[in-house]
Amino acid sequence: MAFGEIIKVILIGVVEGITEWLPVSSTGHMILLNEWIQLQVSKAFWDMFLVVIQLGAILAVVVIFWRRIFPFSFRKGTSFIKKDIMTLWGKILLATIPAALVGIPLEDWMDAHFYNYKAVSVALIAYGIWFLFLERGRVRTFPIQKVQDITWKAALGIGLFQILALIPGTSRSGSTIIGGMLLGASRPAAAEFTFYLAIPVMMGASLLKLLQFGFAFTGAELAMLLLGMAVAFLVSMGAIRFLMRYVRSHDFRVFGYYRILLGLAVLGYFLLA
């Protein structure tokens, strides 16, 4: 793998690691990035790479929240199954069902009709405005303060909001955080549940892409994929910790403004190009 390609993969991994977790849309950033630093690979590999690189980001969630999400205990004198964590996993899996039912059969159709700069720009701007509306002036109270307090009904509702993320530019984390807050979850609880929800969703999406690609990697392609995943993992470790600290004392207005500016930038760039 050439040195120039290594730098490109590192930059892509950095962008993925940051934008996957912040509610700003990784797709919008990847569209712009792909305009400026295209990897010398086939379209089939690129389409797979953009999804499977997320496995590195998922690993960061597992490492950071391991004690909160691992449902078994091997300590003497304690129950082998941690019932509260098993219940949490039940809610996470329930929340994955709506997007899976809609997304799997419509994936190719959605990509064909919405994976373009116009749709991405509109989604960036629209959800940026939604964030500003949600966070407007007034003090909000949230009955759900901890992720463990998210009800089965709220979990399903958040899963329904995740369907919105099938439109490129929406942001999976953005749609589920908005959904969680509208359903009564505090910003930290909504953000944490969003991170957990990413584990089955992104693992499933990555597996599908790998199966479609066929595991037929060249040595250079495998090196690119592993490097991208490693960089995404390291950057995600910082991005997740930053967002969890940030939401304890700040609202999401800054991300709303950023999304609007990015949407206008994407629109302007392609219209003037």
Task: Describe the protein.
This protein is mostly helical and 273 residues long. It has one domain. The protein has helices at residues 3-19, 26-36, 43-52, 54-64, 66-69, 83-114, 117-134, 152-162, 172-182, 187-213, 219-249, 253-272. It is globular. The two termini are 30 Å apart. The mean pLDDT is 89.
Overview features:
0% strand; 273 residues; mainly alpha; 12 helices; single chain; 74% helix
Helical residue percent?
over 70%
First-residue to last-residue Cα separation: 30 Å
Number of helices: 12
Q: What percentage of the residues does DSSP assign to strands (E)?
A: under 5%
In short:
With 273 residues, the protein is mainly alpha-helical.
Topology:
Blueprint: H1 3-19, H2 26-36, H3 43-52, H4 54-64, H5 66-69, H6 83-114, H7 117-134, H8 152-162, H9 172-182, H10 187-213, H11 219-249, H12 253-272
